[in-house]
Amino acid sequence: MAIHTSNRTDVNRSAILARLGADGPASRAELARVLALSPALITQLVKELLADGLLVELEQAPSNGGRPARMLGLATSAGHAIGVKVVADHVAFVEVGVDGRVVRSASEPFDATASTFIAELIERIRDFIAAGDGTTVLGLGVGVPGSVDRLGNGVVDSAQLGWTGVELGDALRRATGLPVVVENNVNALAVAERLFGLGRSHDNFLVVTIGTGVGAGIVVDGNVLRGASGGAGEIGHTPVADDGPRCGCGNDGCLEAHIGEGALVRDARERGVIAPDGGIDDLLAAADAGEPGAIAIYRAAGGLLGRTLAGVVHAVDPAFVVVLGEGTAGWRHWSPGFEPAFRSHLLRHRRSLPVEIETWQDESWAQGAAALVLAMPFDAAGSAGDQGRLIRERLVGQAVRR
């Protein structure tokens, strides 16, 4: 087996499989164009995938002159990946093909603070896998709102879940017998964006999520930046006020304590914009109806997000920014505060930086977790320990058995 040293190159192998799985056979030239890779690199990667039995050469494509192009296709359905999103009150699941498309999904209630939370999570995961059609599962990806020491170990610290040092990866591996990759949920979305979204053609970008929390996935030179302990991208805990409200992390004045879903609802209740028992849906409905107080809350949140994000942009220099998360349902109300604050706080030459707002569904978090599995088969750099090798063995085994 060839030894590869670039995580970016490793992800590109997965991206080739994803592209062929999503859109069908393609030539090497088409893959190079769509994935923004050099013809020489595509030739190298395709050669290795052919040797592994994951790709096959098909009929030649018609030519308008010159040598006909040989088409490439997947040698096998290659199995599926399971993605799990864990939050405080529920768990979302998806099963996806190698192209990232959702085969099925589900959501179940879950209490992250219960004394039996690991046993309950295992039971729900087993039930979801058992309900499938028997297609080989390549691995299990889990996204959590918090820090994860290493993808392969999966030790979780999460203020939102109330977890400290939870050895989630080991517990799930023992219970399911599957390779398991655990990651911060926003980093998982960044991996999905790299494989299936706008990030396919960019090596440097920023994924920002707004909703229950505020977070960022930072992609630099094609790799998700994790930091020393897996906590890079926690922009929601950027201090923005000395005397601000208490954050769930225990500090005062964090960005998340000002513009997270709980903070917006708290402000709306205190100002009488929504009823004392009202929630985020009520706030959005009030803003949609033109209620000035609701509109002002969103506008202020957008302004604070814009100013903070401008600082992050100056630090990491992305080619573009993607905004995701449950909060984007109200982006039309965030935007009037965000755009002027963001643009005016950027250096002049960066003020045209693209900001893309992507549509959101709850299963998107779980799709991101599943993408962790699909990105790991060629993880020769070892960012997921043995888990990348185990996923690769299952993937190659599928092709061999075909």
Automatic annotation (TrEMBL):
InterPro entries: ATPase_NBD (IPR043129), ROK (IPR000600), ROK_cs (IPR049874), WH-like_DNA-bd_sf (IPR036388), WH_DNA-bd_sf (IPR036390)
Domain of life of the native organism: Bacteria
TM region(s), chain numbering: none
UniProt cross-references to CDD domains, sorted A to Z: ASKHA_ATPase_ROK_CYANR
PANTHER family on file: BIFUNCTIONAL UDP-N-ACETYLGLUCOSAMINE 2-EPIMERASE_N-ACETYLMANNOSAMINE KINASE, ROK (REPRESSOR, ORF, KINASE) FAMILY
Similarity comment: Belongs to the ROK (NagC/XylR) family.
Name of the featured protein: ROK family protein
Species for this entry: Agromyces luteolus
